[in-house]
Amino acid sequence: MCYSLYLSTSSPEDLAKYNSELLRFRPPEAADEKWVGLLRHEHKWFVGSKSKCSCTFRHLSTTDLGFIEPQDWCPEDADNIQATAELYRVIRRLIAAGEQVDCLDAWYGAKPGEIKDMVVTFNAVSEKEFLLFENYHLVFEGE
């Protein structure tokens, strides 16, 4: 496994209802505790992709480019783009319903102390631009 993605929300909604071939929500397991402890909200989820881990989402190892649409100079798999769009839509629904949401994208071998926080004004990021940053804890704000 290369990436592990976790999401927490104030919503008690069962996010597994949004599961698809490309996006899978499941409750975290005991091995996930070092990461879910960094999340802010009561309801916590492991977010998998078609690879069963979290590898087949859009990821960048740097924040230098910010949120950015797929680029010709850096080809991305269509399924990765679609999986990330599906995740974006779930987060958007939660925020639109007034819920709080954050997520953490951890690279294999990272330590909790290496995770950086980033506050993201979610409505300022389009579905096409949305991606995950390696070893970042994204805290979403609605406006």
Annotation keywords:
single chain; alpha/beta; two-stranded parallel sheet; six-stranded mixed beta sheet; 143 residues
Account of the protein in words:
The protein has helices at 33-36, 78-96; strands at 3-9, 23-26, 43-49, 59-60, 101-107, 116-121, 132-133, 136-141. 16% of the residues lie in helices and 29% in strands. The strands form two sheets. It has a six-stranded mixed sheet with strand order 2-3-1-5-8-6, with helices on one face. A two-stranded parallel ribbon has the order 4-7. The N and C termini lie far apart (34 Å). It has one domain. The protein has two helices and eight strands, in the order E-E-H-E-E-H-E-E-E-E. The protein has 143 residues and is of the alpha/beta class. The model has no long low-confidence stretch (mean pLDDT 95). It is globular.
Q: What structural class is derived from the secondary structure elements? A: alpha/beta
How many strands appear in the DSSP assignment?
Answer: 8
Largest sheet: 6 strands, mixed
- The number of domains is 1
End-to-end distance, in Å?
Answer: 34 Å
The whole-angstrom Rg is: 14 Å
Number of helices: 2
Shape: globular
Summarize the structure.
By secondary structure, the chain is α/β, with parallel strands linked by helices.
Strand and helix map with partners:
Elements lengths: L2 E7 L13 E4 L6 H4 L6 E7 L9 E2 L17 H19 L4 E7 L8 E6 L10 E2 L2 E6 L2
Parallel strand pairs: 4-7, 6-8
Antiparallel strand pairs: 1-3, 1-5, 2-3, 5-8
